[in-house]
Every structure is written in structure tokens, then in C-alpha cells.
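re: ur question from yesterday

yeah so i grabbed the chain u mentioned. its 338 aa long if i counted rite. heres the sequnce exactly as i have it in my notes:
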Amino acid sequence: MHDSRGVSRRTMLVSAGLGLGALVDGTWRPVLAQANRASNGPMWRAEYAAKKGGVSLAMYRKRIGAPKEAEPPLPVLFLVHGSSISAQPSFDLTVPGKGEYSLMNVFAGYGFDVWTMDHEGYGKSTRTGGNSDIASGVEDLKAASEVVARETGQRHFHFYGGSSGALRAAGFAMAQPERVDRLILEAFTWTGKGSPTLGKRAEQVEYYRTHNRRPRGRDMIRSIFTRDKPGTSDPAVAEALADAELQFGDTIPTGTYLDMTANLPVVDPLRVKSPVLMVRGEYDGIATEEDLLDFFRRLPNPDRQFIVLAGASHAVALGLSRSQLWHVIRAFLTMPTA
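ran it thru and got these C-alpha cells back, copy pasting raw so excuse formatting
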């Protein structure tokens, strides 16, 4: 586990050009974050481990510059991965010669303290006999949030989840609303009604019921980018993603697939109290727009947004429209308070 000095809880304006913020109702609210990595120092990274009973959960952190004693806090953004790919390939991918694909780099550059984690059975985290379902993922996030709070001195964090990661993040927002500042649900699904992707996936539901891991090879990873709308991503990305992910083996837990085909809905919108941004790609087959709008209308916090990104499919964060995703997330997280 990484051993670093604690960070002060003092509320100050973020310095060194990384952002401007204020304390509102006990929560750090970044008003402006315009970091430029080239002019504000080198990227700093660290790895940690959270403990969930006997399970060790690998955690990863990036920000501009190492934390220093009594420094002003940076707003925390926690990224939650989906069903088929672990944390670092999802959010810190390098695609040689193809531009920036690391969500961690982008938002660290915007002035955020960016964290992510491999869920149980994924990446560098402990592989158990469990299936790493949504409920298990919520428990993972509870354990990880204690590490983030200890290392940053902050109590409230922004959360971004993609696909089943959005279900995990929303489940955590229901379980520990006091920890969640602003919540981004990307490629989310609610009831699954009318979803072509989940309809196809449900053909294998008995396999998911009887097996806690499923095969996951290069062709499956490629299909993430082609199943909705070919041409919405660079083929080189799928190959780089497969190279990065398959080092962890050719199987992956079934729990989120089982939940998404047999147990939806697993999130009650009335219990998600934080501000919410919902983002979907125009061609995403994981959910229909009607289903998502039904969820959106039930959210109790009036601070909410629903955005469709034209030309995007399911894998928005690794697609050709990824800079649009960065834009809408950054705007939501840095919105001035009323």
C-alpha cells in the first residue's frame, strides 16, 4: 500500500492555476478547472490497496504534482469501470500515435485528483469464487472510499461510472449518499426494456446463473466497439485495449451480466440524492432513450442533466467522440453553484 502524508482539510482557493473553488454546504465545489499539464508540473501517480474483508482491491491515482502537507485540496473524481475491462485499460489507456485516450490524464490535467479501482475478480484485485455483481461492486466502493478519504482528507467525491460501472456508482450513491458530490452515469441502463444489447445477452442467462466467470478474448473486446455502430471508434483502440487487458487472463466475472439480464432494475432513482449527469451515445444499444428518460424524470435532485452525444455508440470514453464526453463531464463538474 502506498504510504503518503495526509492532506489538510483546510478550505482554500486552488492555486497554481489548477482551479478556483469554494466550500458550499460542507462540500468542495470547483468553479473553474483549467489546468495545463505542460505548465503546471508533471503527472504524479500512485497505487494503493483497499481491503474488503480478505479481498484486496487494487487502486490507482493520478494528479498534477505529488500531494503535500497542508496544501489546498483538489476535487476528487472516482472512475468506476464496467463489466468486461478492468480499471487501467478502461481509464488510463495508451494508444500509440492516436492521441489521448486516458480519462485519468485528461481530468488530472483539468485539476482533479483522479482515482479508480479494479473490482473484485478484475485486474490486479483478488480473484475470488464470487461473481462480482453490482452489490459486490458497491461494497468495493465503500472500501475504496475509506482509502480516498484517508489519503485526500476529503469526505465527498465526484463519481463517474460507465455501463455496469454506472450501476455500481449509482448503487453506491444510494448506499452512501453522504460520500457523493456529483454523479455521472454514462452508458447507464435502468429496466433494460427494449435494449437490443441486453436482449441478445439474455440468451446466455442460464450460463451466467451457473458460472461465476465467462470467457473474454480479443474478439469479444473488439465487439465492444462494433456491436452498435462500426466506425464510431478507431480499430487501433480495440487492439490496444485487448493488449492491455488480456494480461489479466481470458475470463471475467459474470455478476454484472447476470444482474443486467435477470435482475434489473437494481437502482431506485428516488434514492439517488446527488446531482446527476446522464450521458449516452446516439447508437448505444445498452438502453433505450425512453427507458433512461423515465429514470431521469424520477431523480429527486433538480440539478440534473441528460445528454445524448451524436455519432457515439456504447464505448463513448474510448470512441471518436471522447472529447465531447470530456467536455460535458467537465462542464457538469465545474458548474457554478446557483
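noticed a couple things. Residues 20-333 form a domain with the Rossmann fold fold (CATH 3.40.50.1820). also Residues 78 and 302 are 23 Å apart (CA to CA).
anyway ttyl
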